[in-house]
Amino acid sequence: MDPASTDVNALARQLYKPEGVAGEEVGKMLAQRNADQNAFTFSCLQIEPADHVLEIGFGPGEGIAEAVRLTPQGYVAGIDHSDAMLKMAQERNHRAIMEEHVELTLGDAAALPYEDESFDKIFSVNVFHFWPEPLRELAECRRVLKTSGLIVFFLTHPSSWLPGMAGTDVFIAREPEEIEKLFARAGFRNVESRTAMFEDRKGFAVLGTK
Ligand SMILES: C[S@@+](CC[C@H](N)C(=O)[O-])C[C@H]1O[C@@H](n2cnc3c(N)ncnc32)[C@H](O)[C@@H]1O
């Protein structure tokens, strides 16, 4: 096998589920690279101080920290299936966890451990492209979103992915229009996408309401 393709597959798997020492390195890299895309995602979310907010696939926990800052009277929950990312995000958000402003959980987006209608806002950053059958995860998001609540999923556009990523069996390339259709099929209303141009890459967010 070509060593370069082995490397890209290994990196893709680590991005899908960071594990071990390599996973910690991936977590550090994500924390350094995600500021602009988090800022764009939050500009779409329009979080209110008393909102209850859920992040899916929080990685190193930078988005969780920003959601905490924006919800002085609210509550933040996060779920991620990586033990390594849970530990990193817990360290990053230690104080807010102690103050019961945040609860971080190890788990899968396809089976969210929350009551129906729990959240005003749900977001994720660079997670949706790992889901081969996203209607399951979207149905769970819709279930736990309050009526009139807002969901925002940000993704780096496939044209800006690292070379070889689209050829791995982990990353699924979808255009914004395809994701908009999936949101609508899952029952979200007012579905739209917004494009983001950063210095070194292009991204987009898909938004919908319940
Ligand atoms: C590429 S990282 C992005 C992390 C973070 N959102 C950021 O932008 O820095 C993807 C994250 O989503 C998590 N993840 C992927 N699929 C998941 C699923 N089905 N349920 C829960 N977490 C998931 C991974 O463990 C990883 O932490």
What's the Cα radius of gyration? 16 Å
Query: CATH topology, which one?
Result: Rossmann fold
- Output the number of helix runs: 8
> Strand sequence of the main sheet, in spatial order?
3-2-1-4-5-7-6
In words, what does this structure look like?
The chain has 210 residues and is an alpha/beta fold. It has a single domain (3-209), classed as Vaccinia Virus protein VP39 (Rossmann fold). Helices cover 40% and strands 25% of the residues. A seven-stranded mixed sheet has the order 3-2-1-4-5-7-6, with helices on both faces. Helix 4 links the parallel strand 1 (52-56) and strand 2. The longest helix has 14 residues, at 3-16. It binds S-adenosylmethionine.
Quickly list its features.
210 residues; Rossmann fold; binds S-adenosylmethionine
Give me a quick take on this structure.
This protein is of the alpha/beta class.
Which SSEs are present, and which pair or pack?
Layout: H1 3-16, H2 20-33, H3 35-45, E1 52-56, H4 62-70, E2 75-80, H5 83-92, H6 94-98, E3 102-106, E4 119-125, H7 134-144, E5 145-156, H8 176-185, E6 189-197, E7 202-209
Parallel strand pairs: 1-2, 1-4, 2-3, 4-5
Antiparallel strand pairs: 5-7, 6-7
Bound molecules: S-adenosylmethionine.
S-adenosylmethionine binds next to helix 1 and strand 2.
